[in-house]
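Hi all, long-time lurker, first post. I run a small reading group and we've been trying to get comfortable going from sequence to structure in the token notation. Rather than ask abstract questions, I figured I'd post a concrete chain and ask someone more experienced to write out its structure so we can walk through it together at our next meeting. Sequence below, copied exactly:
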Amino acid sequence: MQEIISFFRNRWTKMLSVSFIIAFLTCGSATAQIKIGVKGGFQLANMEFNTDDLDKSNRMGFFVGPTVKIELPVTGLSVNVSGLYDQRDLKVDESTFHQQSLILQGDARLGAGIGDALGIFILAGPQFSFNIGDDVEQWFGKDGTLKQFSLQETMLSVNLGFGINFAKHFEGALYYNIPISKTADFTWQQLGDGLKDETWNHAKSRTNAWRISVAYYF
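-- Answer (accepted) --
Happy to help. Here is the structure in token form:
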């Protein structure tokens, strides 16, 4: 079953990536309009492990950076590319620490206008995250056992969502970020009755996130 899920995840990611590249290449048309701006927002991250034995909870974070919107000659179709600094808190067992990333985010959008100053759109596209903070956290639990959380250096995910344009310069969006690759590995020590009686447990983590963003285009 895991192989089947991985197959469809990989295929879905390739389809989104190819669609985004094709749309981006069409931007060479003289009729395409380019808008440059800045984007920022907040996120609520939820870590999921492949075991139910770990304590976890949702954590807040933020992101900010430049963004470019390219309106294509096809009615209602546009492409958005953003380079963002992303920071979120992650809680694993008793430990909470910061994850810092640089994000390259791209999405294809299909929208429609409502009057002269308001529009709505749906979006979908890939996201590539590059870890720039500490990638390994180690600590001792309350019972004295050693624990380690190791973040991936690069991560691939997909964004799905919708948003509104208003007053020609402002944009708001709500979207859900779905990881394709794992986010991290968690390893912890478990002691037995004897001094040398110990085992090491291992779990994989994926981090989903709800994001709310606001952008201003100059």
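A couple of things your group might point at:
The first helix runs from residue 2 to 25.
The mean pLDDT is 81.
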